[in-house]
Fold this sequence. Notes:
about 230 residues; mainly alpha; Arc Repressor Mutant, subunit A; 3 strands; DNA-binding transcription factor activity; transcription regulation; WH_DNA-bd_sf; TF_FadR/GntR_C; DNA-binding
Amino acid sequence: MAVTARPKDVRASPQALRHRTVSAAVAEALRQRILSGTLAPGFQLRQDALAEEFGISRIPIREALLQLEAGGLVKIVPHRGAVVSGLSVEEIEDVFQLRVSLEPQLLILSARHLTPEDFSELRALRDEYSAALKAGTVETWGELNRRFHLGLLRHAGRPRSLSIIAGLLQDCDRPTRLQLSVTGDVARADLEHTTILDLCEAGEIVAAANLLRIHVEHAGRSLVEIYRKSAAGA
């Protein structure tokens, strides 16, 4: 007579489920602090201090930090534990210097070919970005900024350069959110995006490129200052 094996009960224990739920809540709370810039790159996340703050044991804290590491927001560093991940000061300077060198040139090549449909799409993006800045939905700022900048440059006819810029803007996603959150430059960013778009539509392409250069340079300088202050206070 054949004996049918009973499936093994793989249900998690109530305690394991509780830890999982608590760790997810802690991970989300820390994620929001990192994305808003409250916890700057390089900040050390001490398990004992976090356990005391949240009033829980270190086990769900450890699980939360592992979740954040999997998402690229935290690095587990030997002898230091968990630290908020991010670009170094030198990398930030390099990224923004490359953007300053490339983006204004690409805008000059692209702007004259932007169609009425392109401008309509860019204005819709600008409006969405403006609303997100005012609403404080930090998690969307970097992506909307990236789409706006790439939209301006789409007709440059330089696919290799555009690919480089796309990568640089991706690298700038979290730093952009940090810069805007810490400096409060949301009004300036919104106004400069609007003015660059207006200048392009008016055919004042060189003026638009000059403002784009100033726009990117300012963001880079602000970030370098933020990172250096964070390093000095670490």
